[in-house]
């Protein structure tokens, strides 16, 4: 690809989307988000991330007049810091979408080639109690989903009831993953919980413990519940430490936390070189990030489902900002062959959520 794709204008939109979700760390009432458009000639690339603070204006200004075909190499080195992962992510998605549109190819080709046409999806269950968790799990299974994730609270009895309720409703054949968001603060309690969860039919537990990598290594047992790490694997250095310490059975690539689509591929390559699989997890997006990470999941993370299914489906969001999501049948997203992300923006829906809009470049 030798054609220059000169960036002429960048629009940045910040907003908030209301929700009401319970995590082990507390209740979240809203998510800040950032949506970006990068324009070159008649083409526009789209990107989305969670969060709205940071040097968006500075980064956007620095990209005007540059060749988008350089992709993530255009981004400043300061964005390699962990706290800037989300900013790097949104510009990465935009650039990849724009460049693949200009060359009239689906995004998956630019990412290295689609390895599966349909990606199984894994909705996330947020609940107030075990009964509600079971009912939500059953509803998803009736819609065709075969993989489920549930948020747990870091309390052995409460979490056990949640898993029991889900298994009673959906049986043992459905893949079940629990995410504690580091809710267990004591190693022995985490060990006790994981041992019990195995007997109850849990397949994978994500970020069970607020602890060291050495403690995570000690949580891993042959034939036990698989240990997935997310929070401690959000930079390449962190991933290297996880691998060197043997601290995980699986690495969850958390959307908007890896620092770009190129970085996600690098994490996957490093992990799988040591026989540790990766999964493309879920964040709760407004549709743009959903498309990006479902597409990425058609290229890497092939041993697992994709956890990103759009916040309107499993995060309680009131709306999305794309006109249509990828078609889902029997719990699987069909990855399109249209140029770029293959989505259209619902400008009216976007406008209703936006609190701030600015641009760099020519109007």
Write a concise keyword list for the protein shown above:
single chain, 363 residues, alpha/beta, Enolase-like, domain 1, TIM Barrel, seven-stranded parallel beta sheet, four-stranded antiparallel beta sheet, 22% strand, globular
Could you characterize the architecture of this molecule?
- The chain has helices at residues 56-63, 85-102, 107-110, 130-142, 156-170, 187-200, 213-219, 236-244, 261-273, 288-296, 311-314, 347-353; strands at residues 9-23, 26-40, 43-50, 118-120, 124-125, 147-151, 175-179, 204-206, 226-229, 250-253, 278-280, 328-329, 332-334, 354-361.
- It has 12 helices and 14 strands.
- The protein is 33% helix and 22% strand.
- Strand 9 (226-229), helix 8 (236-244) and strand 10 (250-253) form a beta-alpha-beta unit.
- With 363 residues, the chain is α/β, with parallel strands linked by helices.
- The strands form 3 sheets. Strands 5-6-7-8-9-10-11 form a 7-stranded parallel beta sheet. It has a 4-stranded antiparallel beta sheet with strand order 3-2-1-14. It has a 3-stranded antiparallel beta sheet with strand order 4-13-12, with no helix packed on it.
- Helix 8 (236-244) runs parallel beside helix 9.
- The mean pLDDT is 96.
Summarize the structure.
This protein is an alpha/beta fold and 363 residues long. The chain has helices at residues 56-63, 85-102, 107-110, 130-142, 156-170, 187-200, 213-219, 236-244, 261-273, 288-296, 311-314, 347-353, and strands spanning 9-23, 26-40, 43-50, 118-120, 124-125, 147-151, 175-179, 204-206, 226-229, 250-253, 278-280, 328-329, 332-334, 354-361.
